[in-house]
Design a protein that fits this description.
Helix content: over 70%
Number of helices: 7
Strand content: under 5%
Largest sheet: none
Structural class: mainly alpha
């Protein structure tokens, strides 16, 4: 990436804020908690955005709701992965004997399903279909 584009896109602001937050969380030994709370914030932001959009336009954009659910599922996955570090797995049977591992498999399946729903929501959205129709008319 060329240096002028770095400053023109204002990516440096995000980079500086992320670096400061990371270093503070690392210094306080609260990295996982910081990540979990940031995911909560993003979920809250997506839900508020959906409600405001519904009030303003009288329609719900499914992709933003699915985004919130994907982030919620990722948060649950992260929490369970942190818990799994405390377990000892000595055999292949121990891997499937734990209910925590079953939770991880279910959450992983939910994430894959939500990603499929997100893909379908974008592909069947009004904006995508209009753009596709306009490009077909130009060609």
């Amino acid at each position: 990436m060329e240096p002028l584009k770095f400053f023109k896109d204002r990516f440096y602001i995000e980079f500086i804020v992320a670096t400061i937050l990371f270093l503070v969380a690392l210094a306080m030994n609260k990295l996982m908690e910081a990540i979990i709370y940031m995911l909560y914030f993003i979920i809250f932001l997506e839900i508020v955005r959906t409600v405001v959009n519904y009030v303003r336009e009288q329609r719900v954009i499914i992709s933003s709701l699915v985004d919130a659910f994907i982030i919620l599922a990722l948060r649950e996955l992260i929490v369970n992965l942190v818990k799994i570090n405390n377990e000892t797995i000595e055999s292949f049977d121990d891997l499937f004997a734990s209910s925590l591992n079953h939770n991880l498999l279910v959450i992983s399946g939910v994430i894959l399903f939500l990603l499929l729903v997100r893909y379908l929501a974008v592909k069947t959205s009004y904006t995508y279909l209009i753009d596709k129709k306009m490009k077909k008319g130009e060609g």
